Amino acid sequence: MAIIASNFKTNHTRKSTATFIEELNSFLDEKSISSDVYVFPTATSLDEFNTVSNLTLGVQNAYATAKGSFTGEIGTEQLDEFGIKTILIGHSERRHILKESQEEITKKFNFYKELGYTIIYCIGEPLEVKEQGLEKTLEYLYEQFVGIDTNYENLILAYEPVWAIGTGVTATNNDIKAVHSAIKQKISKPLLYGGSVKVANVREICSIDGVDGTLIGTASWVVEDFKQIIENTKDL
Ligand code: PGA
Q1: Where are the domains of the chain?
Q2: Which candidate in 30, 44, 90, 231 could, as Cys together with 122 as Cys, close a disulfide (CB 3.0–4.6 Å)?
Q3: pTM beyond 0.85, yes or no
Q4: Is 89 helix (H, G, I), strand (E, B) or coil?
């Protein structure tokens, strides 16, 4: 069954998030869709949503703490309030824009692993690495697993080439296939693809060998589109 995840990034308000979740939930319920659907809203939009069992709300980021003095961050005390048990870790925007190091990412991973969170762990190479070929790309990607327990039971992986995120440029099917099959040989965990996935290409991408679903930003923010994406992949 396909795993379909929406990363809101810095989009939607508390109000529009609630409307989105409500509409999405009714859709999954009425159509009896059994795909595993995840939504990662902004931290300010978290709430106790009453959803079907295959719709899970997660957090885009949190600090490796229950609480404390970490200005601007949130910890598990804030997540527990809403029963959040799912987190994105290692997203390229946090690695590259927010400068999170592999060491910090590892610390976060271990903290949330200890608590049994479902972790969607993201990896991906920048364009200059991709241009050096598959071998170098894989070398770079494997570095992003340093310190990460790839046997962790509640782990989902997401391969998101940095050059394909938010750019409208999707990796070719061959690129995706090559990276996914190499990773799958080493790690037997669900592996999502992300990077400019949209209504028009989601079925084709999710049908590639070794692709277990997708993590979507831009194309998932309009609920009608996200519903269509789920519709297009519901039997995969
Ligand atoms: P995008 O983002 O769909 O806008 O390319 C994907 C992601 O960052 O997860």
Answers
A1: 3-233
A2: 90
A3: yes
A4: strand
